[in-house]
Amino acid sequence: MTFRILSPRFRKRRGAAIVETALVLPIFFVVILGIIEFGRAFMVSQVLQNAAREGCRKAVTGTYTSAQVTTDMKSQLTAAGIDATKSTVTIVVTVDPSNPAVANNEVANATTKDLVAVTITIPFNKVQLIPAKYLGAKTLTAKSSMRHE
After folding, report:
1. Domains in the chain: how many in total?
2. Residue 84, domain extent
3. What are 94-145's pLDDT values in tens digits?
4. Distance, CA of 70 to CA of 138 (rounded, Å)
5. Distance between CA 84 and CA 118 in Å, rounded?
């Protein structure tokens, strides 16, 4: 069995890989965690948009109350794994000028051509996966508007 003696050139480069790894690895992990958080933000935004659209569709039918629409929207968030208690739902009924003003911001009182606008918001720091400050101060918002049928 023969042993090779390390050449002087190789002995000088032995620690270079460790130093390079120590410099690059933290940056690599920050980038990967950022990608994960932005992906989470897009996913939650899509869930919020879907809940707002579905809530608005139910609101314009005239068979639901504002409370029922809000409960349904929050149950959609819960089904997607989002804590719905941290979200805020706002429903605004704008009475059409050709209709008598009777809606009082209740979708059950809305009449044909009234505009129903549904907004749902949630602070991103309530749904983030990693407790970092990538998007912590942002609020995710989804809006949907439709005319009453």
Report:
1. 1
2. 15-147
3. 888 888 777 677 888 888 888 999 999 999 989 888 887 777 689 999 999 9
4. 23
5. 16
